[in-house]
Amino acid sequence: MNVRVNHPPTKEMQALDAAHHMHPFTDGDALAERGVRVITGAKGVMLTDSEGVQILDGMAGLWCCNIGYGRRELADAAHQQMQQLPYYNTFFMTSHPPVIALSTKIAELAPDHMNHVFYASGGSDANDTNIRLVRHYWAAKGKPDKTVIISRKNAYHGSTMGGASLGGMKPMHKQGGLPIPDIVHIDQPNWWAEGGDLSPEEFGLERARQLEAKIAELGENRVAAFIAEPVQGAGGVIIPPDSYWPEIQRICDAHEILLIADEVITGFGRTGRMFASETYGIRPDIITIAKGLSSGYAPIGGSILSDEVAQTINAGGEFYHGYTYSGHPVACAVALENLRILVEEGIVDRVREDIGPYMAELWRTLTDHPLVGEAKMVGLMGSIALTPDKTRRAKFAAEEGKVGLRCRERCFANNLVMRHVGDRMVIAPPLVITRHEVDILIERARRALDETYDGLKADGMLVAAD
Ligand SMILES: *Cc1c(COP(=O)(O)O)cnc(C)c1O
């Protein structure tokens, strides 16, 4: 069945959008001036806009549409659940079948020692839960001074007061007086930008050991947890050196602190395993989930807790925390169906064994382009570093992000959604992308890079900062 929805002309929608819709992470006036692109439909990896143009979505929406667009089964699951029980809460000694089934399924898919789920509506509020949870956990263990959470610069953990505080994005901190107290940041394992003369492996160790130094500085009796994305997503798909995570795990084990893996992007197959914690061999106490949990078909997130953390919380009296939509029945039913498809269709194994390696190989060929310094990929998330001089890993003389934005615009003009983070380009297509579609993606990326290069040359911008 073809779903057709009539809509007003593009110009009219653009005007109404500018008049009434406030966009997240957007310069409102700048957007109003150029006009939004209105997306009206999607199927597989392809978006359709209000002019009928087809765009290849290299970002799976916002890193979430793992099983691709247009899966009728999820619509049916939502439809049925809305008729059966559209809403009920889980606060007052009640539960319902979808939240029970989903929790059981997540426990089955998560690492063996993790069998408990606390729900939120997305990743930000799940991380807010984590802040309260780890502090409550230590208080329940008789160590109420362990309140500090160590995070990393250029991390992204969401946009609420708590999430943005955990995150290490300076422009976000500037707006609204963040971070909130007792959250501190160490440096990120971004070898390309910050590795200097160290080898990636030396650099990975050096950055991991900043955690140990920070714990020593604060005192172990003050530190509750370390939080990190296994692979930084919004920070530019920063794939850490292989030496990084084993050293982090060693430090968390040696000192009494909890490890929170924010797998909002990396969870549910993105790196070729159900969780990136498996890919990197880490053993977290808490995993943050959202995005791929429902492939974005319904808003749902949460925290997966280790047995030990869950038992301590459960034994610690009432945990005064929860959201009206924690474990929302419709969102749970949709997520459950999404996970069924992810597992039964072998989508994660295919990322690891087939389409991931296929795309990674083509992705790496982009380094032969004069603008591309490094091109890295894990599973189906990757990035390229744009540079005017790859031998020096140089930055552009132009303000950071100017060149990236130009490249993103050339991608858009070539009907490819690829995002820029500063002067890095990032990619994370739906996990169901075919080889043929990967070929198209690479071809469009290459064309966009060529056009970016020509534009920079014409404008005299192929200049390195010194
Ligand atoms: C997107 C994201 C979040 C925030 O999730 P929302 O659903 O937008 O609140 C948190 N952590 C990471 C790693 C993310 O990528």
List strands and helices in order, with pairings.
Layout: H1 10-20, H2 28-34, E1 39-43, E2 46-49, E3 54-57, H3 60-63, H4 72-84, H5 97-109, E4 114-120, H6 123-140, E5 148-152, H7 161-166, H8 170-174, E6 183-186, H9 191-194, H10 200-218, E7 223-228, H11 244-254, E8 258-262, H12 276-279, E9 286-289, E10 301-306, H13 307-315, H14 329-344, H15 347-364, E11 372-378, E12 381-386, H16 402-413, E13 416-417, E14 419-421, E15 424-427, H17 435-458
Helix pairs in contact: 1-2, 4-14, 5-14, 6-13, 10-11, 15-17, 16-17
Bound molecules: pyridoxal-5'-phosphate (PLP).
Pyridoxal-5'-phosphate (PLP) binds near residues 262 and 290.
List keywords for this structure.
466 residues, alpha/beta, Aspartate Aminotransferase, domain 1, Aspartate Aminotransferase, domain 2, 2 domains, seven-stranded mixed β-sheet, four-stranded mixed β-sheet, 15 strands, binds pyridoxal-5'-phosphate
Task: Characterise the protein shown here.
This protein starts with 9 loop residues before the first helix and ends in an 8-residue tail after the last helix. Helix content is 42%, strand content 15%. It folds into two domains: 126 residues, Aspartate Aminotransferase, domain 1 (Alpha-Beta Complex), CATH 3.90.1150.10; 272 residues, Aspartate Aminotransferase, domain 2, CATH 3.40.640. The chain has 17 helices and 15 strands. The strands form three sheets. The chain has a seven-stranded mixed β-sheet with strand order 4-10-9-8-7-5-6, sandwiched between helices. With 466 residues, it is an alpha/beta fold. Bound molecules: pyridoxal-5'-phosphate.
